[in-house]
Design a protein that fits this description.
Length: about 350
């Protein structure tokens, strides 16, 4: 992998798939640990980075284990949660992102206990509601300070179906304060028909007009993508690489203009895709003019930036500036903003890209 950080696409960008708890500064983790009197495995940025980052392709399980290195320092702390949200916006502004949808699990950031008890009786250091409020505050302050547009997506976790109704209710409560959608993340082997808490939550999302995306086809089979689209009524698919293993499903989703949230660096280091970037599924998406975005997923753990994902696509996957423009237009069209705000975002991109809306795309 070429780790150089030269900028191959220096125009405004849209990012739709990035996790807040996977996009924290190492320095911030160290400072919060010191303030809270909590221990970490190292006390310098260089040493702590070594414990957190994934450097060679592994498994999704080994990747998820990296969160255990630092999440205990962040979760349940008001000041920490607001701070990481604010700093996230600053970091994205520096990458040339003008619109981003950032996702997180309110329950995990609340430090909610993972016990099989009813969703309305879960206990943690904070309530999930308080977490959403704090994140919203941090994101709002960041928007004003750094002049970019930020919205958030709340994640259900596949292994905790008893949290999911709580999540959709929070989406409804905060829909006018920056929360634009619901997501489902975690172990794709856990079926949503069996774990019906997710199914009921997504049915409520549909009834309530809450937008929907689902992690699917990252490491799981195409059937998980089919379930996401047909059962959970997902409007976008997080990752979706394994869709290509079912050509009938893939063609159907192409016809529906389904949006795939692609994360190149992530997909190599989690073992989701062939480590040879010249064989990445997004090359097929590009050739087929599919509707997709390029995203970082968890830049802290992959020691990456959005520039690195773009550089990788350019160097190994045949991406041109015109394709970067096209995929960002697709991203804007597939974002979860209201139509009038979406039009404003598209206008900014068309203007920055020197395009005339009536004749392009």
């Amino acid at each position: 992998m070429n780790s150089s950080q030269q900028v191959v696409f220096d125009k405004p960008k849209v990012e739709l798939h990035v996790h807040l708890d996977g996009a924290i500064r190492v320095q911030t983790i160290l400072e919060i640990a010191e303030r809270r009197g909590m221990s970490l495995r190292a006390d310098t940025v260089e040493e702590m980075t070594k414990f957190i980052i994934v450097e060679t392709p592994g498994t999704l399980t080994s990747f998820l284990g990296k969160f255990e290195e630092y999440m205990h320092v962040i979760a349940g702390d008001r000041e920490a949660i607001k701070r990481i949200a604010y700093e996230f916006v600053e970091d994205k502004a520096k990458e040339g992102v003008i619109y981003v949808e950032v996702r997180y699990s309110p329950h995990l950031l609340a430090n909610t206990q993972v016990d099989p008890i009813p969703w309305d009786q879960t206990e943690g250091d904070l309530s999930p509601d308080e977490v959403v409020h704090l994140v919203n505050e941090g994101l709002s302050e960041g928007q004003r300070a750094f002049n970019i547009n930020v919205r958030s997506i709340l994640c259900c976790m596949r292994h905790m179906p008893n949290w999911s109704m709580d999540v959709v209710e929070l989406c409804k409560k905060y829909r006018h304060e920056g929360v634009v959608a619901i997501d489902l993340a975690g172990d794709e082997s856990l079926n949503c028909e069996t774990n019906s808490g997710h199914k009921y939550a997504y049915e409520e999302a549909v009834r309530s007009g809450v937008h929907r995306t689902v992690h699917a086809g990252e490491v799981g089979p195409p059937s998980v993508v089919k379930e996401a689209v047909e059962v959970l009524k997902a409007e976008r698919v997080g990752h979706g690489y394994r869709t290509l293993e079912d050509q009938a499903l893939y063609r159907k989703l192409l016809d529906q203009d389904m949006h795939f949230e692609v994360c190149p660096i992530s997909s190599k280091l989690t073992g989701a895709c062939n480590p040879d970037f010249t064989k990445h599924p997004v090359i097929t998406f590009r050739k087929d003019k599919a509707n997709y975005s390029l995203n970082t997923d968890d830049p802290l753990i992959f020691n990456s930036t959005l520039h690195l994902d773009y550089n990788t696509a350019h160097e190994y996957m045949g991406f041109t500036e015109e394709e970067f423009k096209r995929l960002n237009i697709c991203s804007a069209k597939s974002c979860f903003l209201p139509e009038d705000e979406k039009d404003e975002l598209l206008h900014k991109l068309y203007e920055a890209y020197g395009m005339i809306r009536s004749t392009a795309f």
